[in-house]
Specification:
This protein is an all-alpha fold and 61 residues long. It starts with a helix and ends with a helix. 0% of the residues are buried.
């Protein structure tokens, strides 16, 4: 009886550990996705600013 109880306890610990790993992976994935979106947005803004600056310099230069 004790062996069966120990096996169940180990299975429960394994389930908790896997759940924690899944939560961490989900959090890291969401954070990376958000960082990627921010980089893309910033890159677009910078490219637009540079393009406008070059256009203004060539017109006024």
């Amino acid at each position: 009886m004790r062996r069966a109880q120990a096996a169940i306890e180990y299975l429960m610990m394994l389930a908790v550990a896997l759940t924690m790993v899944m939560l961490v992976v989900r959090y890291v994935r969401e954070a990376a996705e958000m960082a990627g979106k921010n980089v893309n947005s910033s890159t677009g803004q910078i490219a637009s600013y540079i393009s406008k600056t070059i256009e203004n310099e060539t017109k006024g230069g």
